[in-house]
Amino acid sequence: MPTPQREVHDLEHDDFLEEVHSFEFWFQAVEGYLSGTVHGHRPDTRDVPPAGGDRDRLISTLCNYCIGETAALEGASGLVAIAPNRLAKVFLSTQVADEGRHLEVLLRRLADLGVTDPESKVEKRSSPSLQLFRRRLLELVASRDREAAIFAQNVILESLEYAVFHTHATNADPVTREVLEGIIKDERRHIGFGENELGRKLARSPHIRARLGQVRSQLDHLVLDMLETTAPEIGVDRHEQERLGRTYRESVERLGFGS
Questions:
Q1: pLDDT tens digit sequence for 128-170
Q2: Residue among 22, 153, 18 at smallest CA distance from 79
Q3: Contact, 17 vs 200, CB < 8 A?
Q4: In this structure, which of 188, 218, 236, 240 has its CB flanked by the most CB atoms within 10 Å?
């Protein structure tokens, strides 16, 4: 049985896509780090939740994470219908499962922290900028602007989430850290899909670059506003916040989009 550890990068390009966009590859990948976990963490991990102001800040942060994951869940599910081929449809369907799991475990973490109505709390305490990003992403999907939607979701949103989650996991309580570490592993696959899809499309149709540059100019400030809001709540100082912003920009610029 093939596993994600095989030398997939030695395969020819079409065979590589057949492998890494498959349900088999996805299942082997997630089984490797979700087996034996409950709600995204090991059941024997001692829960030492923060108290007081630290607890309140964590709740606000998780509410923002939930909106980001909801945006990706809704975006990926809509993109399945307009994906150009079987491999893209299959990969996006695995991403739908990933995003649904992320939302579920984050809402469960809110409940573990004593939030009695997590979904209502998410709507009240999440960043207006992130709420607007979600609406803009779904507008791109609804208009069948496929490349722009993948760019917004799998490059812009996922790149920022990856950077933020990775930093937050370094100083989070034990349960939140394990939940975030599992999500981070999924985000790597999602970003890789977006970069691969758009990189090949841009090579064939360079005129699309102008459209994606326009999308970036419309959405950049929304995700960076979210970073501005979230950074202090996860214990990140101004210097580290600037580093996270650079990490996000570098991810986007791998596709050839300057600041």
A1: 999 999 999 999 999 999 999 999 999 999 999 999 999 999 9
A2: 153
A3: no
A4: 236
Helices 86-112 and 118-125 pack at an angle, to 10 degrees, of 100
pLDDT of residue 258: 60
Token pair 């996270």 in the structure block, residue: 244
Lookup: tokens for 34: 């979700």
**Residue in 230, 214, 101, 107 with CA at minimum distance from that of residue 161:** 230
Sequence-distant (≥ 6) Cβ neighbours of residue 197 within 8 angstroms: 88, 150, 154
CATH number of 11-29+48-253: 3.90.1710.10, 1.20.1260.10, 1.10.10.10, 3.40.50.1240? 1.20.1260.10
Nearest alpha carbon to residue 212 among 135, 146, 162: 146
Tens digits of per-residue pLDDT, 34-48? 999 999 999 999 999
CB 140 within 8 Å of CB 149: yes
What is the 3 state secondary structure string of 100-136? HHHHHHHHHHHHHCCCCCHHHHHHHHCCHHHHHHHHH
Q: Identify the band that residue 219 occupies on the pLDDT scale cut at 50, 70 and 90.
A: very high
